[in-house]
TrEMBL record, chain B:
PANTHER family: ANION TRANSPORTER ATPASE-RELATED (PTHR10803:SF26), ARSENICAL PUMP-DRIVING ATPASE ARSENITE-TRANSLOCATING ATPASE (PTHR10803)
TM segment ranges: none
Organism of provenance: Luedemannella flava
A Pfam family this chain is assigned to: ArsA_ATPase
Residue ranges of domain ArsA/GET3 Anion-transporting ATPase-like in the record: 16-283
Protein name: ArsA family ATPase
Amino acid sequence: MTRWPARLHVVTGKGGTGKTTVAAALALALASQGRRTLLMEVEGRQGIAQLFDRDPLPYQERPIAVGWPGTRAEGAGEVYALAVDAEEALLEYLDMFYKLGRAGRALRKFGAIDFATTVAPGVRDVLLTGKMKEAVTRTVEGRRAYDAVVIDAPPTGRIGRFLNVTAETARLAKMGPIKTQSEGVQAVLRSPVTSVHVVTLLEEMPVQETADAIMELRALDLRVGSIIINAAQPDLLPTAKITQAEVRRGLVAAGLPADKGTVAGLVAESRAYLTRRQLEEGLRAELAALGRPMMALPALAGGVDLAGLHRLAGILLGGPDE
Amino acid sequence: MSDLDVDALLGNPDIRIVVCCGSGGVGKTTTAAALGVRAAEVHGRRTVVLTIDPARRLAQSLGLVELDNTPRAVPEAAGELHAMMLDMKRTFDDVVLAHTDAKRAEEIFANPFYQAMSSTFAGTQEYMAMEKLGHLRARDEWDLIIVDTPPSRSALDFLDAPARLSRFLDGRMLRLLIAPARAGGRSVFSLVTASFSLFAKLMERVLGGQLISDLSGFVGALDNMFGGFRDRAEETYRILQAPETAFLVVAAPEPDAVREADYFAGRLAEERMPLAGLVVNRVHEVYAPDIPAGEALAAADAVEADDPVAAGALRVHARLVAQVDREQAVTLRFREAHPSVPVATVAAQPADVHDIDGLRKIGTALSADPVNLY
């Protein structure tokens, strides 16, 4: 079976869990399977550009990386990146459906764009989810434009509302073009094409929000994919208890300072590590109880760079531990 | 380089509002709650903490069991400490009720656009947090109000919401939508001037007639309130600029969080809002400073066979040293960019805080000498 079978991968997670990093690594992983992949961000933060160390992305799809082994000749797919801007998406939408062309830009003068993208209920999210659907269903000369689309999506606190917004607009707009468009988006988001992955850390709040988000997504009939534990700590200490005598013996054997302060310091550091570790095991069990495939990505010491992203992509291709 | 004196800030009777901002996941709510406990218990100030979306167990520790939009006394804290959780929809309803009669309010509450906007519109939470802050301040019942800002995609949303609202209120779009309602419900776009006509046709085509008339009804019903909305937003904005307000930017010692803190510090300066300092949470500390990371790793390999536990302890140590180095580098970058902004640090807690005693400890750590700073 192909790993990551869905074509639209929505990556959410509590703020600060490394959603953007995981989304980028997943895009690289899919490209390494030979899939032409679009990595899309919808929050206007230019996180992708920062991650790949580029200038801010324009509202335009551009190649940003190539999957492993690094060349298309060897069968790797390319990763394209797009930072969706709600204003531009609105103008594009108007152009696509109403053939407005440049005339649509006159709307800006009337404050209609401000209105639509910031004040009118959820219009912004309607546009962003509409763009997601457009990218995943687009064809060029009878072929799919992208084999896979990865979304760096809004955080867990807003993901249900974000993905469900078109259901809401379909209700508000009882008929007309907005209703038709909204229903089209809902159909894609609720089909097996779409999978929502939740990124978490082994910390209490992110785990709680992961559980809440999965419950909410299930209630909305959206498909939950994997739970991805980010920045997992390696298992460094082969014990649950540590004594000063053991540490002192090791320090002496290695010819390192073994004074009282150093020994006590090392023991204190190890005890804090063990406390943390125990807490993490409890949280891991809570996540396991959610009944979704789980995988863990290591913390990348010294920050995230392209080599690091490829490393994470390799682990993601190893697939979830079932 | 000065460092943040939290006790001087909390004990200063001229400071009436402390706003904690920063990106999500940096411990903002915990910081706000810890400052509240310290202000009430150590400085004897009648304090209220306005939280937006606290972790369940943290909320419980403050005695908050439901979202009821009313400050409640925190039973376990000494001194006078109150806490409340923002109920976005109820705050919005209260604003409407304050500006119109009961019958009009009923109409507004029933409108599907109002229902959607009051609970889901991106930015409503930021605006309502400002609104609630203005409301609490106007009541003048507290010596100190501590505000935890919404977990926005960007810390800046909190500052941008009122401006966006104003821009909308001043926009022609609004006048266009209001026109028919003012004219007593005639055909939606019949009264608009010729210059609008092309635009109007376009709107009908894009949105559909039914949607436009619902929307127009909604905006029309709110019409007489918009002035009030704007006045209140502007009033709150002025309070934020006043010397009685202190902003604290909260961050974790990680590149993303510090970058956000950096944007925010720059933005506050532009808005002429008083930034009191940076709080760096979850700072790690090395307890065996005499062993460098490289030596620890080499020694771990050497003693692995005979002393596996000591080898493990040395690896834990090496990892911690590297982490502390990174944390210091990222914090130092902020200090270099903002040399006049004082900094306080809080050591990482092995477990999450969910009781008053844990909050007291954080408060003590906030007030102590900074650890791990050059």
